[in-house]
Predict the structure.
Amino acid sequence: MKIIVVGTGYVGLVTGACLSDVGVEVVCVDVDQQKIENLNRGILPIYEPGLEEIVHRNAQKGRLTFTTSIKENIAETDAIFIAVGTPEGEDGSADLKYVIAVADEIGTYLEDYAVIITKSTVPVGSSLKVKEAIADSMKRNGKSIPFDVASNPEFLKEGAAISDFMSPDRIVVGVNSERAGKVIEQIYKPFLLNGYRMIFMDIPSAEMTKYAANAMLATRISFMNDIANLCEILGADINQVRNGIGSDPRIGNKFLYAGIGYGGACFPKDVKALMKTGADNGHPLRMLEVVEEVNNRQKLVLFHKLKNLMKGDLKDKKIAIWGLSFKPQTDDMREAPSILIINELIKEGAKVNAYDPVAIKEVHRYITVPVNYTDDEYTALEGADALLLLTEWREFRLPDWGKVKELMTNPLILDGRNIYNEKELESLGFEYHCIGVGK
Ligand code: UGA
């Protein structure tokens, strides 16, 4: 089989690399010349555990190639995945200009039947727009090649993308032709050996499934954060409540962790885009308005806790921060709570020392206020009046508490991810605060 993946961002690169790893001939295309040159030299644009190895291995075998041209690679292609970005437009909707531009190019150069599969997260109805754009472009070029469109939303988690792709819970496919369904089934066959499910449905339902899944997960998080804040007031413990409700199989125990709000490239953007779709179609999604509002408030919960503990005066206070990326195992800083927290701290006159294992090289694009970035977690603690744990990187889980205490001026810890044990830290002489645990 031969496929083209257009877009070498997060989804495109992982898709291309993993498909090539099971033997498919994959051509990854991107308009960004520099990115393609780097990929051809083995330099990846993102950090994702395990990805580099797969890219190198398959590039070496010649099964995975990188280029800027759809035209030169389109012959004998069975399927073309569109995995280009859909940035949030000014009105909150997903901007389809890159997706449509790719469709237009495909229509210009397609020579033989192929399935055009949308993998980017696109609003319901977008695959139809892709179909129209391809057909229009063919018409302009005076040709008529048979093709089908399909929707195959992606459910990868950053930091776990390779295992999510290789062992998916489910593969959702929206198609309206048997021929297209067979091509897609063939592509994914190697991933279905362990009984994973391929779920076929109509195209609009597949497009909606992606948004509904992310919006449901975001709703769980905001719900738990809201309950956590009430637990604090009432003297309850959200961790115990989570165990209590999570043991009901109807609720399930995943994605119930209270914290400092959801971030990243997906939940915030997808929740907004679905709200926009609802509003545009005369059906405003009130629940999601609240989900978003709770999340925005939650991102600053730790900052307000600190300010209260400091009696409203953060001027010249030295604050150490552990973790900047929106979650562990990624250098992604998009919508990370750390950005808002650091901005507020600097506004209040605090001095910030921050450490993150991989996001440091990314932070300058997102944090523009003066911050002292350190090379390790302990240096960040020197003379600190408080430590804020913002991302639950594994390496922060079991620090040398003796050393931590010695380095800090004031042994105050605010844990935004509930990873430490209150009793243990208090017995070591720390003052400890987390999310959703009443004192
Ligand atoms: C999310 C979805 O989990 C994927 O299924 C989906 O494919 C992806 O978006 C996407 O649309 O591309 P991702 O954004 O990589 O994946 O990260 P998650 O692991 O889902 O975490 C999102 C945010 O929720 C993080 O800020 C995390 O800290 C927060 N979170 C997660 C919580 O606060 N509590 C939890 O219990 C779980």
Residues 211-297 form a domain with the N-(1-d-carboxylethyl)-l-norvaline Dehydrogenase; domain 2 fold (CATH 1.10.1040.10). The chain has three domains: 2-201, 211-297, 299-433. The mean pLDDT is 96.
